[in-house]
Amino acid sequence: MRTPLLLQSLKTRLATLRELIEPLASQRHFSPRFDRQLFSCSGARLGDYLAEAEESLAHLEAAVTQGDAARVAWLAERLAAQIEALQREAATATLRRHENAHLPGGRLHARLAEYQEYERRLLAMKTGRERRCAENHDPQLAREIDALNERLARCRTAIARTERALERITR
After folding, report:
1. Does the predicted TM-score (pTM) go above 0.85?
2. Is 32 in contact with 46 (CB distance < 8 Å)?
3. Does an H or E element contain 171, and which?
4. Residues of the chain scoring pLDDT < 50
C-alpha cells in the first residue's frame, strides 16, 4: 500500500524543514505570510506555523489509522502545501530583511533581521562543528564550539535588546 510510503515521505520532508526553519523559528513577522486557508494559526513566528504543520501530520496519521480515505487524501494534500509554503518562506527569509524599513522603527527591524541572520549562521556553524566533534573528538573543535556558544549568547542578547526597543516604540 502507498499510504505508509506517503507518510514516511511527509515525515522526512517535515524533519528536513524543521532543521531549515529552526534558526528562523523565533523570527517575528509583522505582516501576514500565509493564506488563512492554509494555516489556521495567527502566530507571528515561523515556529508557530511549523508547529501547525506538525499537528497536521499527527491528524493525518490518526486519519490513516481510522481508515478514512477521503480525509487522508485531503490532509496529505494540505500538509504538502504547508510544507512547500514554509520552504518558500525559509528560502526568502534573507530577502525580507529590510521589508519593514518604511514603518516606525524600520532601522530597528532591519537591525533585528540582521541579528537573526547572524544567529542562524552561527547555529549552522555550531551544528556542523558539533557533528565533526562527535565523529573526531577533536579538542580544537570543542574550543570552537565554546567560542560559538559565547558568540550566540551575545547575539541573542542583542536580539532581545532590539526586540525590547521595538516593543517600546510600538506601544
Report:
1. no
2. no
3. none
4. 1, 100
